[in-house]
Amino acid sequence: MSMFKIEGYWKDEPEQTFTNQLVNEYDDSPKGYEDDDIFYYGLSESDIREAIELGSSTTHDFVITSYERVENG
Prior knowledge:
Layout: E1 3-10, E2 13-24, E3 38-41, H1 45-54, E4 62-69
Parallel strand pairs: 2-3
Antiparallel strand pairs: 1-2, 1-4
């Protein structure tokens, strides 16, 4: 199971940034985490890299600017 921390901003409010938001590759909460701890489900590392390359052209309501893998995720 892969989990990541992402940074970015909201498309409709670019000045509204976020940091250290947890993204899980699968649609369930990893052991030790609650559903509310996870910002977004269903993005793999390759999906995140593609989202960074596409910028605001993704179908998400947000833009990912950077990420890092979470250990034990």
